[in-house]
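Here's what a typical entry looks like (Peptidase):
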Amino acid sequence: MIAARAALLSLILLGAALPVGADDDRDHERAREAFRSGRAMPLEAILARAQADFPGDILDVEFEDEDGRIVYEIKTITAEGRVLKLKYDAATGDLLRVRGRNGKGEGGHHGKR
């Protein structure tokens, strides 16, 4: 199921012919261009890292530009039910930040694990 979800997210991120809004179209084009130019790793590689670091189900993936750095933001839910927001450097695959909730609104981590 996780592999199927990762494949679907890859298709969406890389601009498969699915109905999306205008903002999503721009994000897809930016992601495609960053991948083609070598400025971003493939989503599959980032998702594999996220799954290895934080096993669980992927809920959402966003492709963002933060202060000139391109990042993949991945929202996941762990087997324990903890929702995490992971940020990975799109070019290097380095984990930049982890924010999460343990049911009490607590948690967070900055930098590499």
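Residues 57 and 113 are 20 Å apart (CA to CA).

More examples are in the samples folder.
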